Amino acid sequence: MEFYRNTLAQIQKNPLLGTVNGSFPVVYSQQAKDTGRVASKNPHNEFMLITVQTGLVGLAALLWLFSGSSGATPRNCQHHWNAASPRAW
After folding, report:
1. Please, is 32 exposed, middle or buried when counting C-beta atoms within 10 Å of its C-beta (0-12, 13-18, 19+)?
2. Dist CA 24 CA 77 (whole Å)
3. Which residue in 53, 66, 58 sits closest to 10, CA to CA?
4. What are phi and psi of 58, to 5 degrees?
5. 28-76, pLDDT tens digit by residue?
6. Distance in angstroms (rounded) separating the CA atoms of residues 9 and 21
7. Contact 40, 7 (CB under 8 A)
8. Among residues 87, 7, 4, which one has the least CA distance to residue 52?
9. What is the 3-state secondary structure (H, E, C) of 14-27?
10. Of residues 44, 50, 13, the one with CA closest to residue 30
11. CA dist., res. 32 & res. 29, Å (int)
12. Residues 40, 28: contact at Cβ < 8 Å?
């Protein structure tokens, strides 16, 4: 739970655009410095990692990409496959 609390604190400091991609280990170690906390290179939650590094804008973009991939259902794929088959010509 310590990683989650500290990661949420980092998100609150830079909520919109985050702290730059790849910056989590540096940012987290600065926060844990002189507190006796364990420094981590990963918050053990991919969504929190994305939000710390790219902000809520980056998280929204990732979720948008995930929602777009849900359109690739077997039914839709079958429709496109049939339309592209030589028999349909």
Report:
1. middle
2. 38
3. 53
4. -65, -40
5. 888 777 777 777 788 888 898 899 999 999 999 999 888 876 555 555 5
6. 17
7. no
8. 7
9. CCCCCCCCCCHHHH
10. 13
11. 5
12. yes
Structure tokens at 22: 């790849």
For the record, the structure tokens of 55 come out as: 């902000």
> How many CB atoms are closer than 10 A to CB 48?
19
CA nearest to 25, candidates 41, 13, 36, 38: 41
Residue 28 burial (CB count, 10 A): 24
Which is more confidently placed, 62 or 79? 62
Residue with tokens 């730059």: 20
AA identity, residue 29:
S
Distance between CA atoms of residues 54 and 52, nearest Å: 6
Does pTM top 0.70 for this prediction?
A: no
Write out the two tokens for 71. Answer: 């359109």
